[in-house]
Specification:
elongated, signal, Lipoprotein
């Protein structure tokens, strides 16, 4: 059985490694950005919750508390 290192057999240039690392670390930062599409989606969610509460109001104190917690977390 031969022992060999895959990194040595398939070398990656340092520029490619830096690029991969930059993309890996920058991706979560881009996802945290609240753009206009995200804001519009949140407004639609709040409108849908209002319609749901008008059509099917919370039936008890626990359900009202759960919906209040949902609104606070968002």
């Amino acid at each position: 059985m031969h022992s060999y290192n895959l990194w040595m057999e398939y070398p990656m240039s340092s520029i490619a490694r830096i690029t991969c690392a930059a993309i890996l670390f920058a991706l979560p930062l881009v996802a945290c950005d609240g753009g206009p599409a995200e804001n519009a989606g949140e407004r639609l969610d709040r409108a849908a919750e209002g319609v749901r509460d008008a059509v099917d109001p919370p039936s008890g104190p626990i359900e009202r508390a759960g919906r209040a917690i949902d609104r606070a977390v968002d």
